Amino acid sequence: MLKLKLPILSVFVVSSLILIACSDVTTKSGESTAVSSHTIQHVEESKSTTPVIDRNYDFTYLEEMTEEKRKLYEEFLSNGNINSLKTFTPEEMVLIMMNLIFENNFDKLYAITYNNNELPDKQTFIAEYIDYLLDEDIQNYLMYRYYDRISLDKDSSTESIAIVHLEIIFGSAHYRKIYPLLKEDGMWKVDLYNYMKEKKAKSEE
Fold it and tell me: Which range is the signal sequence, renumbered to this chain (predicted)?
């Protein structure tokens, strides 16, 4: 992927976060790998202020998607029909999530979030997302917008659980973000809510 790693990354102190989310995953070797959003591992973290996103800059996380996939995404935005995204891979759903964060489209972010009969109503979800997770996701959006690679961890993924790695390299520094997704209603959905509940619980301690 050709890109320019612009100075926009300097607006905050770079942090490397590896988030382990959702539920136990059994690898192809039969071993159990802890991939639970009840366990978050911070490999390295630093204090930072919330950066400002320049939404006048013509950027999208979807630039490498096919024209057909982009049209399906636009259909989803216009009519809210989640079925438009059923053919999207886990990697593509992560990129869609990033784009929705950039667009502040929390209504559609709610739609692609894994439910499992645990999600609150949309209004409550959006309010809690803004309070507990938005700042972190904005930083991740900015840091990984010029990502070098996005890939599926095939060893840790199953038919119903997908682990996606989003990676960026600066010289000898290698940063990786891990996103879990789960199959629901015949499509891949991102597991945001379990992590959001953990962030909320920690803020109330």
Answer: 1-21
